[in-house]
């Protein structure tokens, strides 16, 4: 007897099950029924062939129009060319030494492969084919809408479809399998939602687009409710546990910091500072998200809060996403505090504290010393990477956790650090990526937001342009000439590439594990048919011996040891280097105000928010900045349009929206992205604002009753099943 937990090997056989697990992350019947079609094919209105882009892995429905087999000119064997089309569009399929008997003119079929281009025409070579037989596939063929599933190399859309047939059977079978419904009946009634079984059935066997719409609505409710109940439960638990009040004290480190600042705080920094100071002074643990544009000066806000906690006898931890950034923070804070940050040293101020850097790359002795300072409390300010989360890091009295550049950290990690306090510490999370309202509500449902809208005065601003090298090769020469001009004027430049080079298999960072700021961005993970992305090592060499010869060019990437990375960053900061060719290790937070130009190579390989972050590295001082997005993508392609949009605005909110939109697009087209087990597949933070808000209200109401979730075992089970790690994964992705 099948149930949702049944392993797929019992249903589809071991080989298919293995491929499903490895390639699509489908392990159980539960995973399979939630493996939704990415779209539905309808005869006559199929694939808009014009939307296909080279490199997409897709499944298309079409009718065979022409079959032509001929011997190959330069090799032995034959070449078969098949033209398939639907409506206006058509596409070419090529097979070498292979004749598909059933591919006859007039036959309809599904064809899956990776789109390539041949003389300007789209083609698949050796696609997977499923010729539709009107007799045996009568059932699917009769339904108006043919589901197309996210597929992989060895698991085609039709294999998924056949497996689902084994699992679901007919509508009655679906009812039996999916009788336990996580959305309570009264919630369904209030919002006019169908049962889970009906929704799943319809999602896989719709007859009309309205069927899909209604099924989606219901299935999104599942996702939203489970997520909101999880978040609400977390909030309730956090509210019950008192922390420690760390009120402001005059004449201490906080005042010393203010006196030492080389600039006047902006009004925004002052206001946010007041709000934080008040909350840290209360027993109820603070829980704040500080959102502020790149360059708005969040670090100093955090430092003032940390100083307040130190003045009250506690310790503050600043968690940074990369070693480069952690080292930069420690150095910057140390420099600002001067002797006040070196208590216990000969030239230190005995009334001060210690600023301790703790990263995974410290050698054993240095690590022991750092751990001791953290444990005995002499380190008032502890700056570190993920290493701060590891076992064996004990704080004497952790009072405040600051997480810089939140989007690199999952909720789980935040919680792990929070758990290092004897009582819950205050938490400040900082992000430069602006967050649309729904995201704030869902993802950061347990954080209240503060915003820094203002940039410090006197900033030059950044202008951006796309350099479409395929169409305007001369513009690239102009770009390098601009770099030379800036360097001649005493400024510095970054050149960013997606890859390190010299066999990149392990584009990972140091002992902290994969450096999240390095290597190719995830959205370009399967770029099989395209040329490999440009690499730091190659580009640096070509520049140094070519257009930038005579300039001091240095490289920075995640394969360097942390010491090397740090040394090179320092050399750049002290102007011993003119041009830094780097991977996205420099994406987050790096602060060299004298750098004014950023050239991003293969800019189309980066996501929108990555580009925005990268651009934030220039024009941090008073000189105006220039960001050049170099790409081979045609200006008229969707990629070209996206780059033009990034270039046209520096409004972080607009870009955050664009980012969400393009990722959705990726979900619709990309097969590989679908296998995640996050529990969130349909819900769109962009489009489902109302639904999410309604689910949030229902979640609060459900938890607010005397019985709480106990009255709803199915929902409780779904909440428990939402794997904590997977949830974090999704939150991070959003
Ligand atoms: P982000 O918010 O991106 O983390 P930073 O905290 O790194 O920004 O600040 C960017 C730069 O602006 C730093 O060089 C910092 O010293 C400087 N800065 C911060 N606040 C002010 C201010 N009020 N006036 C002038 N410069 C400031
Ligand atoms: Mg920062």
UniProtKB/TrEMBL annotation:
<dbReference type="InterPro" id="IPR001650">
    <property type="entry name" value="Helicase_C-like"/>
</dbReference>
<keyword id="KW-0547">Nucleotide-binding</keyword>
<dbReference type="GO" id="GO:0003677">
    <property type="term" value="F:DNA binding"/>
</dbReference>
<dbReference type="InterPro" id="IPR027417">
    <property type="entry name" value="P-loop_NTPase"/>
</dbReference>
<dbReference type="GO" id="GO:0005524">
    <property type="term" value="F:ATP binding"/>
</dbReference>
<dbReference type="GO" id="GO:0016787">
    <property type="term" value="F:hydrolase activity"/>
</dbReference>
<dbReference type="InterPro" id="IPR011545">
    <property type="entry name" value="DEAD/DEAH_box_helicase_dom"/>
</dbReference>
<keyword id="KW-0067">ATP-binding</keyword>
<dbReference type="Pfam" id="PF00271">
    <property type="entry name" value="Helicase_C"/>
</dbReference>
<dbReference type="Pfam" id="PF00270">
    <property type="entry name" value="DEAD"/>
</dbReference>
<feature type="region of interest" description="Disordered">
    <location>
        <begin position="499"/>
        <end position="531"/>
    </location>
</feature>
<dbReference type="Pfam" id="PF17191">
    <property type="entry name" value="RecG_wedge"/>
</dbReference>
<dbReference type="InterPro" id="IPR012340">
    <property type="entry name" value="NA-bd_OB-fold"/>
</dbReference>
<feature type="domain" description="Helicase C-terminal">
    <location>
        <begin position="475"/>
        <end position="666"/>
    </location>
</feature>
<dbReference type="InterPro" id="IPR033454">
    <property type="entry name" value="RecG_wedge"/>
</dbReference>
<keyword id="KW-0378">Hydrolase</keyword>
<dbReference type="Pfam" id="PF19833">
    <property type="entry name" value="RecG_dom3_C"/>
</dbReference>
<keyword id="KW-0238">DNA-binding</keyword>
<keyword id="KW-0234">DNA repair</keyword>
<dbReference type="InterPro" id="IPR014001">
    <property type="entry name" value="Helicase_ATP-bd"/>
</dbReference>
<feature type="domain" description="Helicase ATP-binding">
    <location>
        <begin position="279"/>
        <end position="452"/>
    </location>
</feature>
<dbReference type="GO" id="GO:0003678">
    <property type="term" value="F:DNA helicase activity"/>
</dbReference>
<dbReference type="InterPro" id="IPR047112">
    <property type="entry name" value="RecG/Mfd"/>
</dbReference>
<dbReference type="GO" id="GO:0006281">
    <property type="term" value="P:DNA repair"/>
</dbReference>
<dbReference type="InterPro" id="IPR045562">
    <property type="entry name" value="RecG_dom3_C"/>
</dbReference>
<protein>
    <recommendedName>
        <fullName>Probable DNA 3'-5' helicase RecG</fullName>
    </recommendedName>
</protein>
<keyword id="KW-0347">Helicase</keyword>
<keyword id="KW-0227">DNA damage</keyword>
């Amino acid at each position: 007897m099948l149930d949702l937990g049944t392993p797929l090997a019992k249903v589809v056989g071991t080989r298919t099950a293995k491929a499903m697990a490895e390639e699509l992350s489908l392990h159980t019947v539960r995973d399979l029924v939630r493996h939704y079609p990415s779209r539905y094919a309808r005869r006559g209105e199929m694939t808009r062939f014009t939307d296909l882009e080279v490199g997409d892995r897709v499944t298309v429905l079409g009718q065979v129009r022409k079959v032509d087999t001929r011997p190959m000119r330069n090799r032995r064997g034959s070449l078969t060319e098949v033209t398939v089309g639907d409506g206006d569009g058509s596409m070419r399929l090529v097979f070498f030494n292979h004749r598909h008997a059933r591919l006859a003119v007039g036959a309809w079929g599904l064809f899956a492969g990776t789109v390539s281009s041949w003389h300007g025409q789209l083609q698949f070579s050796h696609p997977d084919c499923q010729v539709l037989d009107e007799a045996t596939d009568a059932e699917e063929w009769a339904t108006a809408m043919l589901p197309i599933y996210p597929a992989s190399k060895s698991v085609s859309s039709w294999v998924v479809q056949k497996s689902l047939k084994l699992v679901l059977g007919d509508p009655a079978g679906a009812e039996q399998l999916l009788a336990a419904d996580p959305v309570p009946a009264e919630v369904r009634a209030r919002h006019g939602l169908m049962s889970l079984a009906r929704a799943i059935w319809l999602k896989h066997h719709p007859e009309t687009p309205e069927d899909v719409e209604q099924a989606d609505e219901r299935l999104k409710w599942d996702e939203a409710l489970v997520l909101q109940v999880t978040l609400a439960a977390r909030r309730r638990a956090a509210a019950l546990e008192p922390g420690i009040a760390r009120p402001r004290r005059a004449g201490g480190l906080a005042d010393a910091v203010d006196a030492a600042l080389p600039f006047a705080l902006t009004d925004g920094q002052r206001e946010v500072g007041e709000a934080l100071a008040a909350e840290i002074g209360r027993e109820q643990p603070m829980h704040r998200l500080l959102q502020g544009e790149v360059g708005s000066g969040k670090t100093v806000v955090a430092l003032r809060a940390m100083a307040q906690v130190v003045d009250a006898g506690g310790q503050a931890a600043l968690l940074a996403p990369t070693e480069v950034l952690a080292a930069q923070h420690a150095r910057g804070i140390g420099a600002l505090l001067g002797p006040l940050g070196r208590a216990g040293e000969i030239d230190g101020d005995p009334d001060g504290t210690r600023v301790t850097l703790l990263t995974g790359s410290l050698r054993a002795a240095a690590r022991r010393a750092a751990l001791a300072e953290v444990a005995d409390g002499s380190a008032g300010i502890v700056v570190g990477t993920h290493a701060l989360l590891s076992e064996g890091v004990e704080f004497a009295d952790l009072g405040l956790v600051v997480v810089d550049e939140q989007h690199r950290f999952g909720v789980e990690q935040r919680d792990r650090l929070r758990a290092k306090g004897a009582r819950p510490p205050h938490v400040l999370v900082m992000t430069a990526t602006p967050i649309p309202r729904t995201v704030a509500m869902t993802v950061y449902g347990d954080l209240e937001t503060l915003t820094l809208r203002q940039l410090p005065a006197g900033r030059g601003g950044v202008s951006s342009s796309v350099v479409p090298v395929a169409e305007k090769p001369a513009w690239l020469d102009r770009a390098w000439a601009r770099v030379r001009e800036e360097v001649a004027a005493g400024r510095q430049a970054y050149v960013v590439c997606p890859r390190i080079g010299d066999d990149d298999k392990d584009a990972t960072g140091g002992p902290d594990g994969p450096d999240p700021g390095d290597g190719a961005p995830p959205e370009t993970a399967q770029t099989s048919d395209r040329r490999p992305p440009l690499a730091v090592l190659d580009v640096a060499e070509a520049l140094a011996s070519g257009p930038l010869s005579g300039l001091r060019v240095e490289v920075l990437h995640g394969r360097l040891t942390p010491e090397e990375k740090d040394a090179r960053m320092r050399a750049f900061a002290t102007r011993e280097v003119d041009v830094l060719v780097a991977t996205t290790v420099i994406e987050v937070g790096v602060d060299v105000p004298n750098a004014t130009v950023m050239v991003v190579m293969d800019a189309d390989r980066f996501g929108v928010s990555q580009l925005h972050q990268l651009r934030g590295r220039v024009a941090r001082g008073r000189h105006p900045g220039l960001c050049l997005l170099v790409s081979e993508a045609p200006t008229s392609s969707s990629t070209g349009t996206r780059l033009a949009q990034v270039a046209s605005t520096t409004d972080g909110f607009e870009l955050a929206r664009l980012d969400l939109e393009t990722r959705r697009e990726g979900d619709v087209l990309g097969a590989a992205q679908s296998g995640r087990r996050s529990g969130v597949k349909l819900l769109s933070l962009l489009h489902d604002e109302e639904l999410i808000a309604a689910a949030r209200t229902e979640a609060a109401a459900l938890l607010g009753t005397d019985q709480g979730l106990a009255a709803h075992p199915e929902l409780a089970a779904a909440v428990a099943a939402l794997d904590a790690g997977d949830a974090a994964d999704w939150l991070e992705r959003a």
